[in-house]
Design brief:
By secondary structure, the protein is an all-alpha fold. It has a domain at 8-72 and 128-374. The chain has 16 helices and no strands.
Amino acid sequence: MSEPTFPARRVAYAAAGLSFMLLFSAVNNYQKRVIGTMSGGPGLAHGIAIPFIADLALLLLFAVFGSLALAREDTPPPPGPKVARVYDPLLTLRAFACLMVLTGHALGFTFRPATLMPALASGSPISLIVAAPEAGVWVFFTLSGYLIGKGFWSGRYRPSRPSVQKFYHNRVLRIVPLYWFTLGLFSLLFIPAIFAPGNLSAFINMLLFNVNGNLPYMPIGALWSIAPEMEFYLAAPLLFILLRGSVLRSLGVPVLVAVALAIYRMIAFKTGGLQNWFDFAYSPLFGNLDLFLIGMAASALVVQKQRQLSYGLAIGGLILLPLYMVMAYLRVYAVLLPSPMASFIFTGFGPSLTAILTAAAIFCFERAPKYPPGSMVYRLGQPTAVLGTLTYAAYSWHEPILLHLKPYIGTPSSLPMFALIFAFLLLIIFTLSWVLHRLIELPFERLKTTSPSS
């Protein structure tokens, strides 16, 4: 499983460019904290001016060294075979991650039943099904690393300037239109004060993915995760340059990064508790880098290991079941009923463990047989795959929908009542997501570059 590495000079440029991107992530994260401590008005624009200038400088340095790491010319590969329509289990994985987030936010926060906390305090096994929304985000990050890594390892994208430009073009069309529409609409409907002159610079920052859920004028706090996603997309070609080569490089680097970040996350929690961990380990790119790298490493294995797993779908599903329950249990005793041991395991090792299990499930799914329309597996799995195509819109819209329906629905009296309410909420969320998918996502999807060199 060894592939030729890139010239040392390109690797050095890639390492420098990645370093500037990670510094950008750190300054960006600091900038959010600064904005969060200010109350608006003219001082807000002044307070974010210096970090914003630093952001631009670091992005410029990233662009310079990133460009130097990429080849100037690109020779497109011959067109690959046309892929027949089959059931895609990775879309089911997306639905699984999205439901973890939605269930965790609804059950753990917005519509928490009156009987939940007493049941958890009594040691009820309900702790095994209280979803961990953080783990859902970690699954998304790992899957993003896998899909982008697969694009490069399979040759669809290459570390050349023309190909990377097409890669960036496609990522922008995938993420930005719905993100801007969602932020703009909910800001206009519910927080019009954000358009006041004193707050306008902060709104512009949000359009540039500086989202902080703690801000009093933040329309959708859940969109914080788009920032590390976009930063990863920028850095992905350089990460590919740094990882490609031997097994030790492709797999060893993610492991070393995971160990280092587990230590960093535990220190972040130890020094400032959960809030410090959320601010400086959970949300920025540098705190999630191992998740993306583990996903990229999984893509290298999938592309280079072509042996089929007859029961890959079943094995992958069996991996996800304990992942869900373990993360649910740890989160209950790290966040809802905090205990020191569970808090350290969840905050320190939870992200990497989630990424490793997710990567293992992805490998099994990708090496499983392909099931065409008409097969029983296709008929059973396709509804979840359809939900998977709607997850970006569902994730973007679920928070304001939950919050604005809460005053009309109230607090459920029991878990069965929550289940009925949650089913109704899911119907609303995914119906609106289907509308957004048709009106916004699909038209921009058609503008993507689909040539072999895309």
